[in-house]
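Customer escalation, tier 2.

The customer says the design service returned an amino acid string that "doesn't look like it belongs to this structure." They asked us to rerun it and document both sides in this ticket. The original structure tokens are below, unchanged.
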């Protein structure tokens, strides 16, 4: 079972199958499938009407909408066609004339004497019913057709009495005679593929009438396997349960998807479940409860033959990792079937699974352990404290915080595992964006319990406390003292023990010291105080002395250093370190959440360096590995994508992901990111020229103040001030300059430069000089762009501003490019540099669609080339003769000559070759 859609803790506990309620009428269901399969119905009709065609077979996996496509194609033929709909059941192959039974019942007794008489009788009856109209037969589930029905249908096709639309999963499932007709070209095949993720999103938006986040579309796509019928059933159920809601203008989920089988989806599951053998049903029940299980354990229970058959039929899926984990092929099936099972049946199945005995649990993989824990909770039982702790730790590692809290809830204050269990609770609460609850969990550890912890466990507890306190305004300032006191205690332990350097106790104290170093580095990066730790951080990231104590210490320090280098102006060094670390991450897959930590800090490096497109690509890795709960990282990913687009000046592209992020964050606030989301959305609307919505979201951002990591809070402040500046706030520029000065004094040269780049749209010579000074402390293309803008603006150098526009173009920073081009145009016009002015004007025109509202509007708007002049100049510049230009444009040669005279005069050039590159 996919944990992306069905978390370990999402367990229905109903003791018996629930009654079914129809979530949506058949017309609604067909409408959903019609949105996805309209073009496919057209393909079927075209194949049916092709010359020499006897019909068409619609093939595809279960649930892709074969029957709906067949019915839609049939309906599209209109009333002038006589339609006959037939269907075989799973047992149809054993029932003579199974799909024709109702037609058989209409025949007179005299027509039932022999197969030949029946054949002629049915043929005559259909011709009479058609009354001269063409007949088309729709045959569902043709793979189960019995021999007698096959003969009748073949006769109808061969005699031209009817044409056929049949559905089957594969052409090889059909009777041999039909398969031969396909190979000979007399029956066409239309193969239906499952909907892609993009198609799923399009269908959702068309059916629901509002925006749907990419994360939600991706989740539902994975859950239903691209089936429009199942998609409709799942969405209807979630709407009825109140889990899928419209937040603003975006559909979002309040919680993870749990399917309780109270809608049309249960009918689908029951129909498929009824066709399985008793042995296969038990496999399905076991995997429904276990979520996932290793192939070796499952084969020990049921035998390799049955498992191989079910895998071949697509009922189960075996991954290709070393563990060979098995899950159900239909990802929605587990919740429904699990809902049917009583507690007694769940206990009975659990006791049958090898490896679930108490003494064997230490040998389980993480997936097996989590499956056992979820199964135990399903049975209304509690885990033993050691297993509860192990499951909670694993759930936190796999970003399933709600299940981690459920597991840790089995640990009592008197258990030895209590302090570590509270640490896991705190980590889970932080993943949910609930620092107060996380701090409360840690405060439940008594001083006596903390005093009995070893050095490493004590250091980890201190680190957890600092993580929580950093989010709490009334406690954040106490973190340095907490770290100082913890170091003193570790020092006292070392002095009091007088341990040998190579003893286990000394090594434990050294590991605790490394933990405290990382704790301090994380805190200082959280508040944005990078400069004081740079020397120590670089030493920790480059020294191999700690490798024997904590092999991952250097890697963790290097990841923090990567971000610190970028913020302090060493962007090229940061990106170089990022590439080095990225090449070694595969060796550290066993370190909890190290890849996600790297990906998100690398995103900050790329975004602040101006490499916004690479920053978005980096998010694919972060979101793809974010965790197993539905919402693990989806809102954060949408938000980060939107922020990247906003920084690039592409507000029109930023709105969809930003509004999707807001919809998720408003119903489930995550680490106070809502302020940044509002601010970035205000900036995006300002970039698109929508001042009304920009003002609305700017007001929301101002009222959503709260603690956040430095990179988040500084980004929110920047977006708010930039939105205000675009809206004409006279104080916005001063706020940006003050922010730049604060960053500069703290050694944060990169955000200082970004703030000044935004502040100097209408800057003074003093502002540009400060901007140039900041650029001198930085590295990389964004620093070079900032320097060029500062010098070019201060000196009114058109050529330098045009070069700055080209630098911005290379970095795909549309708004900055438009600003530089507008200034280059003004400076060139003032200096009489016609060719430079034309090049700048052309660049501005190319940005008209992506930057509808210019950050700087050219002051001089003198006429340059008309559309006709530009057309003729482009042809002439490419060597086309005046005569050929006249023929192509449809004017006289003399008119072409007159236009070229105007072009040469306006552009200040004297030959046709000079035009190349200007137009």
């Amino acid at each position: 079972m996919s944990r992306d859609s069905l978390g370990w803790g999402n367990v229905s506990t109903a003791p018996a199958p629930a009654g079914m309620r129809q979530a949506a009428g058949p017309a609604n269901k067909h409408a959903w499938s019609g949105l996805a399969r309209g073009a496919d119905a057209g393909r079927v009709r075209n194949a049916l009407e092709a010359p020499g065609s006897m019909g068409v077979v619609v093939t595809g996996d279960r649930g892709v909408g074969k029957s709906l496509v067949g019915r839609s194609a049939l309906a599209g033929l209109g009333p002038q066609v006589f339609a006959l709909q037939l269907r075989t059941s799973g047992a149809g192959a054993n029932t003579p004339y199974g799909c024709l039974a109702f037609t058989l019942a209409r025949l007179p007794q005299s027509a039932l004497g022999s197969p030949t008489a029946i054949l002629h009788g049915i043929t005559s009856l259909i011709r009479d019913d058609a009354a001269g109209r063409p007949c088309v037969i729709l045959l569902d589930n043709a793979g189960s057709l019995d021999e007698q029905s096959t003969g009748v249908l073949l006769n109808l096709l061969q005699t031209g009495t009817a044409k056929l639309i049949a559905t089957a999963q594969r052409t090889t499932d059909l009777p041999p005679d039909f398969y031969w007709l396909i190979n000979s070209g007399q029956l066409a095949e239309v193969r239906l593929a499952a909907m892609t993720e993009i198609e799923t999103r399009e269908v959702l938006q068309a059916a629901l009438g509002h925006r749907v986040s990419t994360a939600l579309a991706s989740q539902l796509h994975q859950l239903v396997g691209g089936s429009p019928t199942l998609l409709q059933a799942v969405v209807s159920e979630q709407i009825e349960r109140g889990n899928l809601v419209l937040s603003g203008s975006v559909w979002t989920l309040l919680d993870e998807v749990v399917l309780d089988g109270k809608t049309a989806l249960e009918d689908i599951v029951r129909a498929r479940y009824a066709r399985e053998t008793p042995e296969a049903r038990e496999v399905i029940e076991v995997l429904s409860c276990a979520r996932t299980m290793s192939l070796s354990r499952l084969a020990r229970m049921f035998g390799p033959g049955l498992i191989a058959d079910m895998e071949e039929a697509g009922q189960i899926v075996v991954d290709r990792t070393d563990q060979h984990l098995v899950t159900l092929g239909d990802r929605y099936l587990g919740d429904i079937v699990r809902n049917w099972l009583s507690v007694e049946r769940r206990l009975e199945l659990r006791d049958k699974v090898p490896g679930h005995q108490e003494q064997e649990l230490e040998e389980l993989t993480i997936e097996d352990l989590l499956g056992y824990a979820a199964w135990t909770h399903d049975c209304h039982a509690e885990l033993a404290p050691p297993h509860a702790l192990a499951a909670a730790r694993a759930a936190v590692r796999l970003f399933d915080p709600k299940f981690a809290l459920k597991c840790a809830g089995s640990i009592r204050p008197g258990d030895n595992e209590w302090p570590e269990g509270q640490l896991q609770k705190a980590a889970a609460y932080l993943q949910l964006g609930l620092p107060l609850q996380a701090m409360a969990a840690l405060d439940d550890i008594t001083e006596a319990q903390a005093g009995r912890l070893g050095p490493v466990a004590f250091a980890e507890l201190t680190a957890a406390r600092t993580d929580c306190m950093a989010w709490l305004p009334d406690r954040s300032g106490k973190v340095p003292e907490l770290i100082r006191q913890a170091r003193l205690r570790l020092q006292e332990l070392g002095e009091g023990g007088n341990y040998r350097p190579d003893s286990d106790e000394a090594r434990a104290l050294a590991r605790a010291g490394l933990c405290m170093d990382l704790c301090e580095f994380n805190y200082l990066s959280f508040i944005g105080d990078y400069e004081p730790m740079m020397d120590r951080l670089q030493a920790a990231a480059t020294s191999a002395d700690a490798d024997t104590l904590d092999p991952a210490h250097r890697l963790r320090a290097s990841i923090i250093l990567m971000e610190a280098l970028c913020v302090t102006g060493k962007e090229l060094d940061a990106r170089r370190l990022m590439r080095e670390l990225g090449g070694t991450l595969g060796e550290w897959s066993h370190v909890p959440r190290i890849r996600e930590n790297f990906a998100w800090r690398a995103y900050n490096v790329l975004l602040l360096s101006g490499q916004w497109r690479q920053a978005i690509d980096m998010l694919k890795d972060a979101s793809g590995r974010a965790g197993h709960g539905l919402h693990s990282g989806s809102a954060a990913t949408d938000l980060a994508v939107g922020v990247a687009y906003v920084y690039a000046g592409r507000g029109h592209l930023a709105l969809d992901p930003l509004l999707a992020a807001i919809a998720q964050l408003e119903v489930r606030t995550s680490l106070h990111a809502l302020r940044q989301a509002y601010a970035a959305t205000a900036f995006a609307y300002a970039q698109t020229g929508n001042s009304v919505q920009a003002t609305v979201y700017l007001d929301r951002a101002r009222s959503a103040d709260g603690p956040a990591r430095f990179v988040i809070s500084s980004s929110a402040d920047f977006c708010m001030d930039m939105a205000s500046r675009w809206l004409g706030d006279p104080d916005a520029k001063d706020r940006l300059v003050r922010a730049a000065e604060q960053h500069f004094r703290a050694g944060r040269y990169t955000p200082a430069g970004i703030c000044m780049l935004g502040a100097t749209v209408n800057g003074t010579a003093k502002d540009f000089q400060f901007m140039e000074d900041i650029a001198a402390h930085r590295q990389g293309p964004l620093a070079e762009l900032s320097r060029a803008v500062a010098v070019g603006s201060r000196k009114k150098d058109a050529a330098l501003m045009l070069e700055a526009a080209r630098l911005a173009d290379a970095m795909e920073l549309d708004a900055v490019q438009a600003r530089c081009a507008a200034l280059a145009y003004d400076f060139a016009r003032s200096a009489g540099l016609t060719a430079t002015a034309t090049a700048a004007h052309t660049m501005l025109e190319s940005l008209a669609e992506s930057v509808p509202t210019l950050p700087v509007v050219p002051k001089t708007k003198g006429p340059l080339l008309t559309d006709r002049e530009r057309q003729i100049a482009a042809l002439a510049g490419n060597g086309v003769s005046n005569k050929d230009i006249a023929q192509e444009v449809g004017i006289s040669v003399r008119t072409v000559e007159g236009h070229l005279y105007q072009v040469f005069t306006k552009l200040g050039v004297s030959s046709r070759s000079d035009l190349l590159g200007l137009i």
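Tier 2 assessment: The sequence is consistent with the input. The mean pLDDT is 84. Residues 86 and 139 are 5 Å apart (CA to CA). Sent an explanation to the customer and offered a walkthrough call.
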